[in-house]
Amino acid sequence: MKKVLPWLHQHLPPPIAVGKTERFRACCGALLGIFLTGILSRFALGATPDLPLLIAPMGASAVLVFALPSSPLAQPWSVVGGNIISALVGVACAQWIGDPVLAGSVAVTGAIAAMFALRCLHPPGGAIALTAVLGGPAIQDAGFHFVLSPVALNSVLMLVAALVYNNATRHRYPLLTHPDYGNKHKTGDAPPSERLGFTADDLDDVLKHYNQVLDVSRDELASLFMQTEMHAYRRRFESITCADIMSRDVVTVEFGTELEEAWALLRRHKIKALPVVDRARRLIGIVTFVDFMKHANLDVYHGFEAKLRHFIRRTTGTHSDKPEVVGQIMTRSVLTANTAMHIVELVPLLSDTGLHHIPIVDHERRLAGMVTQSDLIAALYRGRLVDSAAA
C-alpha cells in the first residue's frame, strides 16, 4: 500500500487552472446549448420524430465548444464538418459491412482518417460514426437521412448557440488567426518582436517534431509563450510601469482647434502626434502627421509643400468642404495604455503595429501622459543596466 499510494498520486492529473467563474460560465453554456438544440430540433422535426431529437455525442461537442472554445477541436468547421463526415462514414459502414463489430471498428477508423484529411478533427465524430452502426433499427433504417437529421441539425444548432453565448460572455469564438503585422516597410526583415527569442518558424519546427495533436491552436500556443516571456521579464525588472516612463507635460488639442494651429504646435514642439481631448481632459482621438498628409492628398511629392500649405490655411469668409478643425481629420479609434500597465506590454504595440506613440490614460480615460518608442527604449536599457548591476 505504501508503494501504491505514491504511484497513484504521481498519475493523478494536476489541478485545472480555471477559476470558479469560468467553470460556471462553461456549465451554463452547456446547459443552454443542449436545451436550445433539443427544443429547436423538436420544433423542426415535430413532437414525435422517428429519430432521436438529440444524439449522445452532442454532449461531448457541448463540452468542447463551451468549456474549450479556443481549442482547434472546437472550431466551427471541426464541429459541423467532423460530425457530418463521421456520420457519412458510419452510415456507409453500417450498410456495406454486415458484422456490427467490424462495421463499428471500420467506421470509427474511417471517421478519424477522414477528419484528419479534411482538417476537421472533432472527438465526438468517432462516437457519431459508432452510433450510426450501433444506434438501433430506427437509425439504421433511416440510412443517410441520419446525416441530415439529427446529426447536421444538432451540430448547426449547437454551433449557433456557441457563437452567441461565447461571444456574449467575452470569449472570442470562433478563434481566428492572430493578426500578422509583418514588416511594415515591405522588406525581407522579420518583425522586430521576432528578431530575438523564438520565431514562428521555430515554433513550427518544434510542433513538426512533436508530431502529436495538441488541444491548443498554434497561434494560442505562440501567445502563451510570448506572455510567459513577458511575465518573466516583468518579474526580473520588477514593476516599471507606464506611469514611470511617460511624458506628463503633453501638448494637446481639442476637437475645435484649427488645423493651422495644430500644425504649428507639431512644428514648434518637434513632435509627430497630438492627443485630442475634451474639456475634462478625456481622450477622444489623436491627430498625427499621417492624418494631415492623408487628408491633404499627399500620396505623391509633386506640389507637396503647396498642397500642404493650402490644406492647412483656413479659407476666411467663404464656405468650403475642406476640413478646418482637428476633429474633422483626427483618428477616433486610439490604442491606449493605462498608467499601471507594465512597460513590457508596450513592446508588441510599439514594435510590430507601426505605432510610434501610445497615449496613457487613467481609469476614467483622462489623458495622463504619452509614451513614445524612444521612452520605451530608454526604459528597457535602464532596466537592463539595473538588472546587470544587481546580478
Topology of this structure?
Blueprint: H1 4-11, H2 20-45, H3 57-67, H4 76-96, H5 100-117, H6 124-134, H7 137-142, H8 145-168, H9 200-210, H10 218-236, H11 242-245, H12 259-269, E1 273-277, E2 283-288, H13 289-295, H14 304-312, E3 337-338, H15 347-351, E4 357-361, E5 367-372, H16 373-390
Parallel strand pairs: 3-4
Antiparallel strand pairs: 1-2, 4-5
Describe the structure.
- Strand 4 and strand 5 form a beta hairpin.
- The strands form two sheets. Strands 3-4-5 form a three-stranded mixed beta sheet. A two-stranded antiparallel ribbon has the order 1-2.
- It has helices at residues 4-11, 20-45, 57-67, 76-96, 100-117, 124-134, 137-142, 145-168, 200-210, 218-236, 242-245, 259-269, 289-295, 304-312, 347-351, 373-390; strands at residues 273-277, 283-288, 337-338, 357-361, 367-372.
- It has three domains: 20-168; 177-236, no CATH class; 243-290 and 323-390, Roll (CBS-domain).
- Helix 4 packs antiparallel against helix 5 (100-117).
- The protein is mostly helical.
- The protein is built from 16 helices and five strands.
- Helices cover 53% and strands 6% of the residues.
